[in-house]
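Support request, please re-run this one:
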Amino acid sequence: MTDAATLYIGAGMGGVAPQALVLKRANRHGLIAGATGTGKTVTLQGMAEGFSRAGVPVFVADVKGDIAGLGMAGSPTAKVHAPFAQRVADIGYEGWSYAAAPVQLWDLFGEQGHPIRATASEMGPLLLSRLLNLNDTQEGVLTIAFHLADEEGLLLLDLDDVQAMLVHCAERADELSTRYGNVTNASVGAIQRQLLQLRSQGGDHFFGEPALDLADFIRTDDNGHGVINILAADKLMASPRLYATFLLWMLSELFETLPEVGDPDKPKLVFFFDEAHLLFDDAPEALTEKIEQVVRLIRSKGVGVYFVTQNPVDIPDAVAGQLGNRVQHALRAFTPKEQRAIKAAAETFRPNPAIEVGSAITELKVGEALVSLLQADGSPSPVERTLIAPPRSRVGVLTPVERGVLIETDAVGDKYDTRIDRESAEELLGAKAAEAAAAAEAAKAEVEAEKQAAAEAKEAARVAKEAERARIAAEREEAKRQREADRAAAASPWNKAATSATRSAASTVGRTVANEVTKAIFGGTSRGKQSLGAKLVRGVLGGLFRG
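Re-run finished. Output below.
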């Protein structure tokens, strides 16, 4: 039905106008669109199988939980067997039979597959701002935090590191505002609240180590078939912003990691982005430009991106213009808006005179689509009304036992099962804060010790001064007592009598001595004829003895 260089998509009734995707043009991206229940998921599943059989690894998000059926072969007892068998006969699909595809199961929450993690540094401030729904001012503050972490060699691995870095920025707000622009506590607080909300949605499961090695996505099995990597996204869809940002991060990592290969014979990897409108809902202009850039340039890395969405107008024109391979399932036209969407979708196809595209889009049956693919020369083929070839694998969910077996037996093993928490910004900033606190405590203790020593010295001086005062007071008191004792002793009758007697005796002795001295000096004279000099000498000597 097809050669090795193409991927069979389907054909018209009776096998007319078969549609096959040229693998060399598969990296020119594509679109699968259609209303709910028109067969988009079955088309996606069949294309994923086709790429795998061609040796091309695939990544696809399993939004409803049924894409994981790729890992198990379909069954003749399944309820879809009869319509599938009829479709195979209608398009003349020879060699079709049920078969499983090699799969690897992944889950951001680590519940339905191997955990997928990325570091906050790998995510970067632009995507993280999109994830947190930050405004321009808050995005600027987050960018400053990332830049400062790079400048100071601090690893941002998980949300704890981001939060610690934001606290660090707030503490250095004055310095950073001078260097990079205004950093306010209000902006930091707003970002912290958004991080808390992200945690409540389970976003902290995604950030950390071991980080995903994209080489584990790009591998083939022993038969040379590309491994289909299936992300369990049913729970993740409860956080649509996280879902869209994660897939965009993967595209960005592929773009930055893979080497330039130009247009290889077949893609290195094909990436199916289900519910693609989530990527563009409320996306700021800067993010939309980044998406456009990645989609436009990742082609040269050998990666094909296929957007899956309900309405083709969900994709911005700048991105839609890069999508060369298109499969359009039925659209409904119940409202004026839907009618405009049908008209817009019809204008994207290369016209086919045999088909009125605007009418055909509303008339397509389940499993039928309008298909236009890039030809070998790079030009789009005229649009054809096509019955899509049914997949070979199970269309339906896996049982828990089947899922467990597939997880345990794939090539990934337990590489990502255990989280690693190595030293990063949170620990380093915590250590610095602890050291600063210890230094501050030591300085405070030293100041307190100096104050205590000064107080003790002051108290000792006061005590010594008080003791000296007490000693002096005691000496004064003792002297006072002595004086009083002396005065008391002097005032006693016995002391007065002794003093009087002494004075009397001294007076008598003095007179006697004086008389004798006078005699010796002036000679003896009669009592009445003593000279004036004799009287004077006697008086002086008498006075001396009385004293």
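The chain has 17 helices and twelve strands. The chain has a mean pLDDT of 88.
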